[in-house]
Amino acid sequence: MEKSWIVVKAQELVESAMKGNDASHDAAHAFRVRDLALSLAREEGLSASPDSMLIVELAALLHDIGDYKYMRDPSEGKVVENFLVNEGVDESITMKILSIIKGMGFKEEISGLKEKTQCPEFGVVQDADRLDAIGAIGIARCFTFGGSRNRVLHDPNIKPRLDLSKEKYMNKDEQTTVNHFHEKLLKLKELMKTKAGQRRAEKRHKFMEEFLEEFYEEWDGKA
Question: Mind giving me the DSSP string for 34-99?
Answer without folding.
Answer: HHHHHHHHHHTT-TT-HHHHHHHHHHHHHTTTT-TTT-SSGGGGGHHHHHHHHTT--HHHHHHHHH
